[in-house]
Structures are given as C-alpha cells and as structure tokens.
Amino acid sequence: MFLIIHSLITYNRTTHFMTEFVLLGFHGQREMQSCFFSFILVLYLLTLLGNGAIVCAVKWDRRLHTPMYILLGNFAFLEIWYISSTVPNMLVNILSETKTISFSGCLLQFYFFFSLGTTECFFLSLMAYDRYLAICCPLHYPSIMTGKFCVILVCVCWVGGFLCYPIPIVLISQLLFCGPNIIDCFVCDPGPLFALACISAPSTELICYTFNSMIIFGSFLSIMGFYTLVIRAVLRIPSAAGRTKAFPTCGNSAGMQKIITLVYSAMIPLLNPLIYSLRNKDMKDALKRVLQLTVIQN
C-alpha cells in the first residue's frame, strides 16, 4: 500500500508548480520555540514510555492474554505509531529555519496520520463493543469473543483504517498548487491544502470531508451506543460494590486550530494509556511484575 501511494504521488508530481510546502507551526521568538520544543519532546517521550510499557506488559504477562488486554495492547501499539507519524517531524520543524516539507512527504504524512487516526476510531468502537459483551452478555462473552475472533477484529481495524484514505490521497495529489506554499499548521491537513490549490475542487473536498464525517460520526455513535447500554446495565446492578467493580473495566470517560491539532496529535496519545489501561488493577500488577523482572535480570 505504501509503495502504491508513493508511486502515484511521484507520478503526479510533474503536474504541480510547487515541490514543497512550508509548515509554519508556532512561529515566534526563538526562546518561545525552544519552550514548545521541550514541551512536545517531553510529551512524546512520556507517550512512548506509557504505551510501550502497556505493550510489553500485555506481551510478556500470559495472564493478560485475554481479548480485553489484547485490544488494549494493540491500541497502545497504535498510539506509538500515531504520535510518531507527526511529532518527530514537528520537532524537526520547530528547530528548522526553512520549515519545509516536500510535496510527497506532505501527502504521505497526511495518509499515515489520518489512516492511523481512523484505525484508532475503529479500535475505540471495538473496545466499546468488547465491554458491552463483557458486561451486558457475560454468559455468552467467552463463546463470542474468542481469541480467534478477537484477532480477526483487530486485523479488520488495522486493514480497514489503512484502506480508507488511498482514494482521497490520489485525488489531492492530482490538484494543481501554484502558491503561496505556506501551511499555517503543524501537519498537512486537507483544509489548508485545499486552500493552496490553484482552482477549487469541490468534488475532491466533498469526498474527503464525507470520508472524515462518516468515520468520526460513525465511530462516535457506535461508542456512545455501546457505552449507553453498558451504563444502563451497570446501574441495574443492585450492590454498590458491583457497580464500582464494573465501571473501571470500561475505562472511558488559525491559533485555536493549531492548539486543537497539537492536542489530538500529541497530548491525547499520552492521556489514552491513563484513561484506558493504567488505572486498571490487572494492568498495574502486570507492569509491576514486568518491572521487577527487568530489575532482577539487570
């Protein structure tokens, strides 16, 4: 898939007046940019540490080889790649004088960022479905959510996420961009790209925004639907202790545009391990065992 998209972008590159874009990011005094660099770097390292710890715990502790933790482990692995699709380039961009990105690099970043984001939406829906089965259908859960079925669902999320955006990428790659080449953002978002096109492309914009809307609202509605059923089932549990035990298994609870982009590309991947995994008792116990084993081996 990567080679196909790269070849299509390279083939269409001769039709463009521009060969690179300028990702403006947070421009300002050098001291301010250094603060942004340090802040984002710390977020990135903490995200890698938190999600990496979850992946290791799920992989090495056989007691976590259950559907729920397999989903959490894959979700943590996904978060590592999701944040790595933009943040390293963001850090280089802050220190760079030119702040440029090639046309091919811009579209590839767009593809991986949105494909991984789509995969994340699918995983959140799948995790909501898993909790719905575990809490609302506990007697049927072991026969429905088998290890084989869980692996199939995980593969569908990964493959489905990366199959959603080749068509929008190819359509955008055939647009003519004649300047200016400045994108006032951290990443190659479709909105700023359309604004830089020589002529408007309403059909291409409609396809891209339709894709995004279907994915976002479809995932949102499925998540809300499953967790509404879960909350209703939990509230019917007669004892307060039972309700308390059930809820943690769910685990979910131009300048402005830049801040929003920074939040969902750098900060949310850091918070997701805290929301979905690190508050879970079994996960915390597994992390302690992995840490103790690492200390003993060293």
UniProtKB/TrEMBL annotation:
Keyword vocabulary terms for this entry: Cell membrane, Disulfide bond, G-protein coupled receptor, Glycoprotein, Membrane, Olfaction, Receptor, Sensory transduction, Transducer, Transmembrane, Transmembrane helix
Subcellular location: Cell membrane
A GO cellular component annotation in the UniProt record: plasma membrane
Domain of life: Eukaryota
The keyword Zinc belongs to this UniProt entry's keyword annotation: no
Chain segments annotated as transmembrane: 36-57, 69-88, 108-129, 149-171, 214-235
Family: Belongs to the G-protein coupled receptor 1 family.
Gene Ontology MF terms: G protein-coupled receptor activity; olfactory receptor activity
Pfam families: 7tm_4
Gene from which this protein is expressed: OR11H6
SUPFAM superfamilies referenced in this protein's UniProt entry, alphabetically: Family A G protein-coupled receptor-like (SSF81321)
Limits of the G-protein coupled receptors family 1 profile domain: 50-298
Organism phylogeny: Eukaryota, Metazoa, Chordata, Craniata, Vertebrata
Record-given protein name: Olfactory receptor
Biological role: Odorant receptor.
Membrane topology: Multi-pass membrane protein
UniProt xrefs under InterPro entries: GPCR_Rhodpsn, GPCR_Rhodpsn_7TM, Olfact_rcpt, Olfactory_GPCR1
